[in-house]
Amino acid sequence: MSDNTIIKVSGLKKYYNGDQIKALDDINTTINKGEVVAIIGPSGSGKSTFLRSLNLLEVPTDGSILFEGVDITSKENDINVHRQKMGMVFQHFNLFPHLSVMGNMTLAPRKLLKMSKEDAEKKAKELLKMVALEDRAEAYPSQLSGGQKQRIAIVRALMMSPDVLLFDEPTSALDPEMVGEVLDVMKKLAQDGMTMAVVTHEMGFAREVATRVIFMENGKIALDGTPDEVFNNPSNERLKTFLAKVL
Amino acid sequence: MNSLLLALMADSGNQSWFDKTKDDFVNNFITDDRYMYIVNGLKITLQVTFFALLLGIVLGIIMAIIRSTHDKTVATMRPGIGKFLLKVLNAIAQVYLTVVRGTPVVVQLMIAYYIIFAASNNKVGIAILAFGINSGAYVAEIIRSGIMSIDNGQFEAGRSLGFNYAQTMIYIIIPQAFKNVLPALANEFIVLLKETSVSGYVGLQDMSRGGDIIRSRTYSAFMPLIAVAIIYLVIVMFFSKLVAILERRLRNNER
């Protein structure tokens, strides 16, 4: 395994009802440092399940996930420590409604990394500036628009200085005119070298920003290649019909 | 003060409605310092309610966390000592909830006084225990409903940041759940305050019993019982007002 590998997935399986439903059926792949991996596929193909099992929000039935060389599926390893290095952004933002923007951002670094209040707030302000929301630090999530919420959710994850960011359909719950502002932030992160895995329906993003595209179908990786390979000469029949529908 | 009132009474010759009411009042509350039955009873009532409430909240939170942890996680837990322990704790909590909610509080109080703590004569302590254990069962279900009402995404967001189960509960779930169940908890407090009025069954002289003692001395029921009723009502109204303010303040936080 090269030094560049951040996540290595081997033989990952997720079954429901015994082995009646195979949500993930023998997934093998690696994610390298600095890669932006777009995971696309029809609904029910297992792409969200795959992403969520990377930080064990879904506990896999079988297989291993090496994160920075450590098998996080093993009971000996404390998943909570490793999750601190794997940020996650959700479709429905999942901001904490009882905390202000500042509270949302500083809670985890202060409690888990024992960062001082001043340091945490200083870092939060810098990140808020990056997403152009520095004037909303004291606002509560209910006062924000969807696009603002998602940008806050991204910087909340960044507060922990993660080595990889997992995005679970980050723009699917947004009004169309707000999709752009969130994608812009993600683009900026990609340019800064952040490693990202993004489940998305935004084919434009997958084509322009992603360095790699994984097409999933029936719990399997059906195709794994550069955006050019996937979008410009789709060899797979199922991918062709999928792209015909979404493009 | 007493003698002055008595002197005033003696002065009045033929009794008007007003005088009769005044007589009644003096007879029920002033003579022999009878109002002290109500004052001392009120102290007992507040004491029992307050400590039973504390005990109930502590018990309730523990039971609620056991029950909701079990319901949320046991299906996905790996087999092992942790899972076994959780199942045992959940079973104990279930029995507690079933028994306490399935029997009248008066019966529980008498069982506590005459059977379990028959050797003790600390009536206030026994009443606090009995009412606290009783209230805990209701508080448990209130808080559990609050925890279960929080969107699972909140839980996942906490876990994805690296918080463990307990930290996620403490920093993220419980604060939100508490706000959601505040009205129900306030209601439980009101019920508890009024339920302590059965303390007389084990000879504890709470406020209701105090009013009843005055009635048995003066053979006039109206004044002492209405007085007791008004005091309960005033406490409840005052408390409801407090809770309304607290609720508004918690809500304002989010607007």
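qc> The first helix of chain A runs from residue 47 to 54.
qc> done
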